[in-house]
Design brief:
The chain is α/β, with parallel strands linked by helices. It has two domains: about 5-40 and about 270-360, Aspartate Aminotransferase, domain 1 (Alpha-Beta Complex), CATH 3.90.1150; about 40-270, Aspartate Aminotransferase, domain 2. The protein has helices spanning about 40-55, 65-80, 95-105, 120-130, 145-155, 175-185, 240-250, 255-265, 270-275, 275-295, 315-325, 345-360; strands at about 25-30, 90, 110-115, 135-140, 160-165, 190-195, 215-220, 235-240, 295-300, 305-310, 325, 335-340. β9 and β10 form a beta hairpin. α10 (about 275-295) packs parallel to α12 (about 345-360). It is globular. The structure holds pyridoxal-5'-phosphate (PLP).
Length: about 375
């Protein structure tokens, strides 16, 4: 018995699930998580909030997550300088669920989305899951999205949704705000800006563009800079009408009382949680410099990872790094790999391993 015996949707036959390998190695630099765990004080605060929530678990949680939206709105306002109201914030189980809700509301059968690749593979997969046609356009040779690239993609496909990831996973490159503004003017569809790595970037957030742009949505997460990948909390920032649209498709009580409690606790400690961002950008820049010295092509990254090329065979390099107990990411771009900035020790382990492999293969 297998999938072919089931009355599965035709468009899902022959497809494979999302699968970053979860291997048991010493140094895991493959999923862009924050390597530092929340501090003892933050853990204590989370435990207290969750304990209080536990006593009320006989009841369904706040369907509209009002308190959490208020805390997220304050955090975004403080980070971006834009006065964001709780009405314009919508949290879900990871930004992946936010993206899925956006696709349920604005995509679906007979509708299309465009993305600029290489980019975050889940954009394509969430389109597939929601029956939305996904059309990929290539980035420039330096992995940028220019206004010209975006405008010709929009003119050709006339999409209902445009995905832009900035800083972009896997390349780390950013899209200028004026390009986003031009792209917005060129489409009548929704523009989804995925800012999962915003806190690692020196540039301004697309939240600063929201005023007067009803079809713009900025999607962010607590999974990366804020050390909470395991908590599954992401959120959209948009104009209120977009949040109204998401409420039409979300499942009732989608965000558990425990998750809301974890988010509220964590957002009382954002300064502390963000403490490691500077350290991680130091490690990122160290990786970039060292890879350049080894002769690889390195792309300027404003995230917590580095994308590099110039590998004769990236699968071979990936395997050799695994042999050295270092896990990086092969995103399927020939000759390229992505490595997450780790702790100083993890970064040392990666740099030593790749230097040794590079030396050995040039002998
Ligand atoms: C890691 C990542 C996310 C985060 O997804 P969550 O569901 O919030 O954990 C979203 N977008 C991009 C581009 C990412 O790299």
């Amino acid at each position: 018995m297998g999938l072919t015996d089931l009355p599965l949707r035709d468009d899902l036959h022959g497809q494979t699930p999302y699968g970053a390998p979860q291997l048991d190695v010493d140094v895991r630099l493959n999923t862009n998580e924050n390597p530092f765990s929340p501090s003892a004080a933050v853990v204590a605060s989370i435990t207290e909030h969750v304990g209080a929530a536990a006593a009320g678990l006989n009841r369904y949680p706040d369907r509209d997550a009002v308190a959490l939206r208020g805390a997220l709105a304050s955090y975004v306002s403080q980070r971006t300088g834009v006065a964001v109201s709780p009405d314009g914030v919508w949290p879900a189980n990871g930004s992946n669920e936010v993206l899925q809700q956006l696709l349920q509301a604005f995509g679906g059968p007979g509708r299309s989305a465009v993305g600029f690749e290489p980019s975050y593979s889940m954009h394509r997969l969430i389109c597939r899951g929601t029956g939305t046609d996904y059309v990929a356009y290539p980035r420039t040779a330096s992995f940028d999205v220019t206004a010209a690239v975006a405008q010709s993609a929009i003119a050709e496909t006339r999409p209902d949704i445009v995905f832009l990831c900035t800083p972009n996973n896997p390349t780390g490159t950013t899209v200028e705000l004026d390009v986003i503004a031009q792209l917005y003017d060129a489409t009548s569809g929704m523009v989804i800006v995925d800012e999962a790595y915003a806190e690692f970037s020196a540039g301004p957030s697309a939240v600063t563009l929201l005023s007067g742009r009803e079809r713009l949505v900025v999607v962010r997460t607590l999974s990366k800079a804020l050390e909470l990948a395991g908590a599954r909390i992401g959120y959209a920032v948009a104009n209120r009408s977009v949040v109204d649209a998401l409420q039409l498709v979300r499942l009732p009580y989608h965000l558990s009382a425990v998750t809301q409690a974890v988010g509220l606790a964590a957002l009382e400690h954002t300064a502390e949680l963000l403490h490691w961002v500077d350290e991680l950008t130091v490690q990122r820049d160290r990786i970039a410099r060292a890879l350049e010295e080894l002769g690889y092509d390195v792309y300027a990254s404003e995230a917590n990872f580095v994308f590099f090329g110039g590998l004769a065979d990236q699968q071979k390099m990936w395997n050799k790094l695994v042999d050295a107990s270092v896990l990086v990411r092969d995103v399927g771009v020939p000759g390229h790999l992505r490595v997450t900035a780790g702790t100083p020790d993890e970064t040392d382990a990666f740099l030593e391993a790749i230097a040794a492999i590079t030396k050995e293969s040039s002998e």
